Amino acid sequence: PRYLDLCLKLWKKTTDYLYDPAERLYFRDSRYFTPREKNGKKVFWSRGNGWVLAGLARVLMAMPALHPERPAMERLFKDMAGRVAELQTPDGTWHSSLLDPASYPAKETSGTGFFCYAMAWGIRTGLLPDARFGPVVERAYAALTACVDPNGRLGWVQPIGQDPRLVRPWDTDAYGVGAYLLASSELVRINVRDAAHG
Fold first, then answer.
1. Which of 10, 82, 185, 193 measures 20 to 30 Å from 54, CA to CA?
2. 89: closest CA among 62, 121, 115?
3. Which residues contact 81 (CB under 8 A, 6 or more apart)?
């Protein structure tokens, strides 16, 4: 309980500082409060927000159902998931910059993997309605799977960084693969649940 209380205290402190309630997204850090993308929009990094949404899911897993802070954390998860779903691009992914995907036209699989995982978890646990988020998750997972090359390597993972950057087909890293595996594990759980209910 002490670790959870500290986690929630620090989460609130970070949210008060970096969360933009109008956009329902997190800045990477204070250096991004004023810069703008080429289209004039604020800079919101896909993978950074993917870590947040996936992190919210992981924290909620550890919270007792009657914890006094749970309703606020669930609200944040739902608000952010709703905004992220609106920003999915036609190719099923989220590009490096959430509000200026045209300036970074390549798909990006680490942010996409974290978003897919978090929303699939939200569907499975009943926090997110399947009717709205199911198609988002399906498009995202199909896009992720299409980015696995014949050798089994997941490509299009933005290299280590702190802001939106260009991505290439051969870029890969462990955090992108981990996000894809997390998404896969949640979809397996959903399929098992659905099969058990006929």
1. 193
2. 115
3. 53, 118, 119, 122, 128, 133
